[in-house]
Amino acid sequence: MSYKITHLTSAHPRYDTRIYHKMCKSLSKKYKVSLIIADGLGNEKKDNIDIVDVGKPISRKYRILNTTKQVLQKALDLEADIYHLHDPELIPIGLKLKKLGKKVIFDAHEDLPKQILSKHYFGNITKKILSLIIAKFEIWALKKFDLVISATPIIKEKFLKHNIKSVDINNFPILDELIDIKPNFKTKTICYIGLLYQTRGIKEIVKAIENIDVKLIIAGKFYDKNFEDEIKALKGWNKVDFRGFVSRDEVKEILEESIAGLVTLHPTPSYVEAYPVKMFEYMSAGIAVISSDFPLYKEFVEKNNCGICVNPMDIKQIEKAIKQCLDNMELAKQMGQNGKISITDKYNWKNEEKKLFDIYTKVLDDK
């Protein structure tokens, strides 16, 4: 018997790395997999996955109030054996599916209550009240689900303390994608690839290169025009090669050009306890990592001697770390090799895929 599995997201893109490229592709080797999304690009059959589109919402409010209902209806139409939810706004859908006797998994990509505390568009008092309310609702609701998959061990432990079944499936990289990259350790080039928010440390990075002979490749999309204008007005911007949003093939090209990758995120509640996917991609590509000095990050960077940890708010520390890589290319190359070895041996999706299949087998067997 081929079980039917449906993944649901109302907020993530169609080809999200964790949802599509990792989980859905892996599960499609054994099960009949569908993915419900909301991007307005239509239905599609790809990689043995049935992609079902409910249409792009016209606003965040519409998405929460209306798109979620459309996702639920499509989910019911598909009559799956397991429903795997990827957005907090879909938790009410999960409760309805449970009432109908369905098996439901929630995927906690981040610690939601702590993520709320990082939202700049809420006032401080509003954030604290909203975070407390959501924390209580989250615990109450997820106790009713069959399982919670957590993106990090820290998030898993939070749920286990409340007697919620939880296991961690980490966002480690897919081995085949970046492991064959051969970086050029002869050019003074470093990179930052990812979202371009203030809390991602972009301002500090650009300031740190003002007095260094270096090229900084930045790839990503600015989501705030005022912040973009502020960054582009900085003195260090004339040393930036800004690529904008790039494809996965272009990501590979950037990594091949670079000797080090930066992931100096600010110490917000959500970043401190979440794995930065880009850090593992830098390691996989074999370039040195310059990361924030959070305990979770140091566990990988310092333990595997694959980079340098800095206070992300200290521009001088970031500058010193960049210089250290530029002034000693052999050291940067060795750190890059150490990172690649650790990804090959331990921190890769192949190992997480085994855990994912074990989880599904247990949920399906649990009567």
What number of domains?
2
Approximately what portion of the residues adopt beta-strand conformation? Answer: 15-25%
First-residue to last-residue Cα separation: 16 Å
Helix content: 40-55%
Count up the helices.
16
Structural class: alpha/beta
The total count of strands amounts to 14
* Shape summary: globular
CATH topology type of the largest domain: Rossmann fold
Would you kindly provide a written description of the structure presented here, covering whatever features stand out?
The protein is an alpha/beta fold and 367 residues long. The chain has two domains: 4-109 and 143-172 and 348-365, Glycogen Phosphorylase B (Rossmann fold, 3-Layer(aba) Sandwich); 175-345, Glycogen Phosphorylase B (Rossmann fold), CATH 3.40.50.2000. The protein contains 16 helices and 14 strands. The chain has helices at residues 17-27, 60-78, 91-99, 112-116, 124-142, 153-160, 175-178, 202-208, 225-232, 248-257, 269-272, 277-285, 295-301, 315-327, 329-345, 349-365, and strands at residues 4-8, 32-37, 44-46, 49-53, 82-85, 103-108, 147-150, 166-168, 189-193, 215-219, 240-244, 260-263, 288-292, 307-310. An eight-stranded mixed β-sheet has the order 3-4-2-1-5-6-7-8, with helices on both faces. Strand 1 (4-8), helix 1 (17-27) and strand 2 (32-37) form a beta-alpha-beta unit. The longest helix has 19 residues, at 60-78. It is globular and about 60 Å long. The model has no long low-confidence stretch (mean pLDDT 93).
